[in-house]
Amino acid sequence: MGVLTGLLIFLPLLLGSTISTVPNLLPLIIILPYFVFIRELYTKSEHPFTNIGFTLLGVIYISVPLFLFYLIAFHGPDESYRPQNILGMLYLLWASDTGAYTFGRIWGKHKLFERISPKKTWEGFVGGFIFAIIAAFIIAHFYTNFTLIQWLIIAGIIFITGVLGDLVESMFKRSLAIKDSGSLLPGHGGFLDRFDGLFIAAPFVFFYVTMFCN
Length: 214
What we know:
single chain, mainly alpha, 2 domains, two-stranded antiparallel ribbon, 2 strands
């Protein structure tokens, strides 16, 4: 039910609707999660509250951010698909991760959030910021749908929320006493580790782009 709810959010746009129709989809988006509650009546589970909580958390944590990230690709006067919008944001996220890893590996000494992620350092935090800003200057030269200032602001949002996204996913794994979120990508901490920064960053970037980049 959780997977179905997450997929149905994307269905209208995948069938050819435009971003301007999204407000008309709100009734559908609002009503879908409540089917999770209704379904639980018939599962005879001893832990319905936990089941509903886990299911809806998956929708909120994964499906909704990916949907908002998808909508960013349609930002523009004619609502045409602009892959450079989301490519630029992915480049910024990857640049930030690369800078944080490089600086943290070479100079990292001061712990950033040891209770949740002992390996993250303030030196890595600074490195991620520097790499994200450099990447924003480069991206703005090639992808002109946003101005340089807008790309720099987006870089700042992605950098900060990306770090928080990493910490949130680490918090989840620590609370469940697991090392990796899955085995699909061995040695990478699990599949979710490749997108954890994006899950928290996407809603904030969507808000900025929608409200201030018209």
